[in-house]
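Here we describe the complex-level prediction in full. Unlike the single-chain runs in Section 2.1, the two entities below were treated as one system.
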Amino acid sequence: MSKIVGLNGDEAVAYAAKQCDVDVVAAYPITPQTIIVEKFNEFVANGEVNTEFVCVESEHSAMSASVGASLTGARVFTATASQGLALMHEILYIGSSMRCPIVMGVANRALSAPINIYADHSDMMGSRDCGWIQIYTEDAQEAYDWTIQAFKIAENKDILLPATVNLDGFMISHSTQDINMLDDEEVRKFLPPKKLEYMLDPENPITVGAGNNPEFYFELKMQQVDAMNKVPEVMRKVNNEFASVSGRKYDIIETYGIENADVGVMALGSCTGTAITVAEKLRNEEKKVGVIKPWLYRPFPSKEIISSIKNLDVLAVIDRCVSFGAPYGPLCSDVMSLLQSMDIDLKVFNIITGLGGRDITPTLLEEIFIEGLDYQKKGKIKDPVRYLGVRM
Amino acid sequence: MMSEIKFPNYKDVPLAGNIYKPGDPQYKTGDWRVYKPVIDYEKCTKCLLCWIICPEPSIDRTKDGVEINYDQCKGCGLCAAECPVKCIKMVEG
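The structure predicted for the assembly as a whole is:
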């Protein structure tokens, strides 16, 4: 029997980690993630969990300790944001290369300077090639559900890759909503204790992380490529299993009205909920619009995106991040290269907006849809990249 | 260099490059060396300190004391520095 509890996104993620019965949490506080580790510390202090909480002096150490703990076979959870994620950067690659199925909550926040603690995807996008599975959520419920599912995907013996569950800073992390929580027992049944593929064991010593020269390094990267490519299939199975436990059905991407839409908007994170609300309103006005919301960003859900766009004339891609000097924002760059490689002729424009926590409002989203409809009518894109919501 | 040895397909390489057999010599590191340790067995007391201290380990125990594995020894010189009777000399080669 599930129950409904009022929780914000951070607390929801902390409860999910608790129910996943993690063995080790090594973390350092940083806004807007702090509540996750604070809440988890409360569980530790109250004796509600059987977890070793490692207080570290930086995120670099948090991730290093997480990798070490994971190699001993422990189920490991951590969380961070922004500068903290940036400080972890080099160890993120080590975690994925050493095939540690760590799960990390990332409360997405802008990068300094100037210092800004609000929602922005620049932090995770800066580490998008680090070999981690990357999931973006729309609200606190999704953050809770995906945290539980992330462990099951990451720990699958064909995958063994770490995963981040991204929740927009403040928009999700600090906004309280009704959360449908599963029973501890239900989670335990869905996610049994971790089965070890390999681990450090004094009785049977092995060497991990040994140096590899040009004769082997490439082969090890190829193993990671293989594992990444298997994620969608495993994810779908995990989604189905989770649906049978929770009644909530997730997938690799979610779409709204896209099957018969002329103009679509694609975005990651919290603004997708607003986009769907705006699309509903526009569809009531007979405007054929739709929304594509990738839950999974790495590996990039190419197949699912291709099948979702096949009836579209125009697609607007929203990036909550600037890739300075690049032709598009990161999400749009991925979409463009996908279209190019599949030889698909779809008119695409990129909207860069919401930086540093600036609201992505219904009005702003409506403007994007209307712009797309206008491009569709005219048959061409006027502005391939627009910075929307900035004073200029 | 790479064409001389047959290396395994990436699917047959152990996951994450883990080495499951301790001390499995994947590479002969002896040719990295500038100076090599040479033991004067006349002076050696077989205290085994060099065997303990060698980080590789490139010093093997034998029935009659110790022997340096020159295929692996990188010539770090720790054994020579720590030998209590100074019976290990570092010589070029």
